[in-house]
Design brief:
38% of the residues lie in helices and 15% in strands. The protein has 378 residues and is an alpha/beta fold. The protein folds into two domains: 240 residues, Aspartate Aminotransferase, domain 2 (3-Layer(aba) Sandwich); 133 residues, Alpha-Beta Complex (Aspartate Aminotransferase, domain 1). The strands form two sheets. A seven-stranded mixed beta sheet has the order 1-7-6-5-4-2-3, sandwiched between helices. A five-stranded mixed beta sheet has the order 8-9-12-11-10. It is globular and about 75 Å long.
């Protein structure tokens, strides 16, 4: 079955006797036992709920995983992954990470005894250089947020397998519609479902997709114990968003390509970071491992004044955090998504006062360009 069809029909509830086309919202905390020692298969919503179960089955099918677990946010999902490791365990992570992930690793996971090295995971030799006897996992974002570096997942998987490491891949930017890390050797896939999978900027969600039954069992135990499960109504909202994932991703990518080409011609734009540009250093890797480039663009303008003026003048484009919704959003990483990263680290990565990140939406592309033009050049 094609992935676009799975987006629509992958969450169909065959157990629902009413014939409802949509999955019902089972808005309940607990379930009645038929008799002593018997269960309907549902006991308590923290463990499982029928609405959430259908969503999880759909995500697992889309990512070709054994199981998927739906969390209350993307950060809740990543927090649960960290519970797989004992104090003293060492993790190598991409050095260009979403600021919230970086904050979790530095502020919470390190306090809990985990050790981290941050490396350019697009360079396999850099990963190998950081491997120690106590290394347990590789945590990769690809493309990265916000500098759009691309990691060769299959090559990194080979290193992980050679050293008996878990490979965890954050696939938020490309979604299962454009990229399937488990097919390329990843053990666990992470998503912020708040973003493209939901697609409407109206709810929070996160996902972990397990590549093996053993990992599924370990993660399910952590899930029910720590309890950051996705609520029934939010699960229903994500199911609704998932049905249009394919058409949204195609159109947003189409818009992003046109906007990228326009940005590249502007005198006040000094650099454009988009993995769909043939000039991108990782373009060939993207072609090889993904079916598309997505709709995230970062770009550097000529001055801090230009950056702030653009943010204050946009009208159709919304100055806001987050990404992946139908509305085009522009973000200032140094003040928003990456504000908690020390300045010297941000500067080293190119996340400076001139860098902006654009999440391209579904508006008529000429309207988006016209708004950017008046804000930049007006």
């Amino acid at each position: 079955m094609d992935i676009s069809t799975l987006c629509i029909h992958g969450s169909f509830d065959n157990n629902n006797s009413t014939g409802s086309v949509t999955v019902p919202i089972y808005q309940t905390a607990t379930f009645v036992h038929p008799s002593v020692g018997q269960s309907t298969g549902y006991d308590y919503t923290r463990v499982q709920n029928p609405t959430r179960e259908q969503l999880e089955k759909a995500i697992a099918r889309l990512e070709n995983g054994v199981d998927a677990l739906a969390f209350s946010s993307g950060m809740a999902a990543i927090t649960a992954v960290m519970e797989l490791f004992e104090p003293g365990g060492h993790i190598i992570a991409s050095d260009d990470l979403y600021g919230g992930t970086h904050r979790l690793f530095y502020s919470i996971s390190r306090k809990n005894g985990l050790k981290f090295d941050f490396a350019d995971t697009s360079n396999v030799s850099e990963i190998i250089r950081h491997i120690r006897p106590e290394t347990k996992a590789l945590f990769v974002e690809t493309p990265t947020n916000p500098m759009m570096h691309v990691t060769d997942i299959a090559a990194v998987s080979a290193v992980a397998k050679e050293h008996n490491l878990l490979l965890i891949v954050d696939n938020t930017f490309l979604t299962p519609y454009f990229q399937n890390p488990i097919n390329l050797g990843a053990d666990i896939v992470v998503h912020s479902g708040t973003k493209y999978i939901s697609g409407h900027n109206d709810t929070l969600a996160g996902f972990l997709v397990a590549g093996t039954q053993k990992l599924s069992e370990r993660l399910r135990f952590i899930y029910k114990t720590t309890g950051a499960c996705l609520a029934p109504f939010d699960s229903w909202l994500i199911i609704r968003g998932l049905k249009t994932l394919a058409v949204r991703m195609e159109k947003q990518q189409e818009n992003a390509l046109k906007i990228t080409n326009w940005l590249c011609k502007q005198n006040k734009i000094k650099s454009v970071y988009y993995v769909g540009l043939p000039s991108h250093p990782d373009y060939e890797i993207s072609i090889r491992q993904a079916r598309g480039f997505g709709a995230m663009i970062s770009f550097e303008v000529d001055s801090e004044y230009t950056a702030k003026r653009l943010l204050e003048r946009v009208q159709l484009v919304l100055y806001a955090e987050s990404l992946g919704g139908v509305e085009t959003l522009i973000t200032y990483p140094i003040l928003q998504t990456h504000a908690d990263i020390p300045k010297e680290e941000r500067d080293r990565k190119g996340i400076n006062e001139k860098l902006l990140r654009l999440s391209v939406g579904l508006e008529y592309v000429d309207d988006i360009i016209a708004d950017l033009d008046q804000a930049l050049n007006g």
